[in-house]
Amino acid sequence: MLTVLVIIGLMSSAVILTFPDKKSGVEVQAQNLLRTVNAVSEEALISGQSTAFGVSREAYAFYVFDQDEWQVRDEIKWDADARPEFTLSDTRFELPEKLAPLIVFEPIGLSEPFTLTVSDVSKGGKNLDYIFVSDGNGSIRMAGKS
């Protein structure tokens, strides 16, 4: 009987050790951002209507060009532990306080090259950076975490 309890205890320990780590709010937001910004870029290509992406210190937003002006489609506040930095055409860009379209996704599949780095400052003093890169081809990739 004691042997059975030991075996069950060892198996339970092995199962618990294989559970994935809990993701931070910034990591979840980074994954959602990557999926959504690519979907918005593809939407411009499919619909033939320009879309855009805007970033501020407090939030980011997606836009659609409708009735001769930019309309906010979605606005998402940054996680409290997120610190965004934006580079446009190899020049660090000071993020505005108010949201406005910064990157336009053209219906021909092009956009301005940019890099967005989102730092997660919740990791015990160590920043974990999520780096998003667009080469101007309308596709955005996560270049890595550092």
Written account of the structure:
There is one protein chain. This protein has 146 residues and is α+β, with helices and mostly antiparallel strands. Helices cover 27% and strands 38% of the residues. It has a single domain, classed as minor pseudopilin epsh domain (minor pseudopilin epsh fold), CATH 3.55.40.10. The chain has helices at residues 2-17, 25-47, and strands at 51-55, 59-66, 69-77, 82-88, 91-93, 103-105, 114-120, 128-134, 140-145. The strands form two sheets. It has a five-stranded antiparallel sheet, covered by helices on one side. The protein has a four-stranded antiparallel sheet with strand order 3-2-1-6, with helices on one face. Strand 8 (128-134) and strand 9 form a beta hairpin. The radius of gyration is 20 Å and the shape is globular.
Features:
single chain; 146 residues; alpha+beta; minor pseudopilin epsh fold; 5-stranded antiparallel beta sheet; 4-stranded antiparallel beta sheet; 27% helix; 38% strand; globular
Please write out the topology:
Blueprint: H1 2-17, H2 25-47, E1 51-55, E2 59-66, E3 69-77, E4 82-88, E5 91-93, E6 103-105, E7 114-120, E8 128-134, E9 140-145
Antiparallel strand pairs: 1-2, 1-6, 2-3, 4-5, 4-7, 7-8, 8-9
